Amino acid sequence: MDFEEKTLSRQEIFKGHIFTVAVDEVELPNGLGQAKRELIFHNGAVATLAITAENKIILVKQYRKAIEQVSLEIPAGKLEVGEAGNEKAAALRELEEETGYTAGKMEQLYDFYSAIGFCNERIRLYLAQELTKVENPREKDADETIELFEMTLAEAKEAIVSGEICDAKTIMAIQHWELMLGGSYG
């Protein structure tokens, strides 16, 4: 069976600093006709599961305008211009900017898409260990107001259950952490 939708035309609706919005007219597979697809094209992002020597996760609390509420998340951010292809360095940059830490050990865990129904945002999730405080860390983005939290796995799972953690990448990272600790990993 053919699944591919062939693009007949694309109309760019908006082009911003973070993403582009377009509407595609597509030919549906297997002679099913045509349809419109509203799409968001994103430059990509990185996220970090940062685990302290005390076996706690570092989380950042910040306001998220899209959901009109405060969110508790792992450190993350969009790829800056020129960082495509060097996502590990981007993840280290974001970790330092948002938390003031750097990692002696950094490995990629996942490479996934956040919302494939309408967006091509690709997030690379890293595990950061052997954390050390940076003496003069890079400044966080001027438009960010962040508070740091450290939680045990049990506390993080409770925060998921209570809805305090509602961010998908953070939930995925915490589930990975649980697999690592439970011996079902690797």
Describe it for me?
Helices cover 20% and strands 43% of the residues. The chain is α+β, with helices and mostly antiparallel strands and 186 residues long. The longest helix is centred in the last third of the chain and has 15 residues. The two termini are 35 Å apart. Its cofactor is Mg(2+). InterPro entries: NUDIX_hydrolase-like_dom_sf (IPR015797), NUDIX_hydrolase_dom (IPR000086). It is an enzyme of class 3 (hydrolase).
List keywords for this structure.
single chain, about 190 residues, alpha+beta, Nucleoside Triphosphate Pyrophosphohydrolase, 2 domains, 4-stranded mixed sheet, 3-stranded antiparallel sheet, 3 helices, 10 strands, about 20% helix, elongated
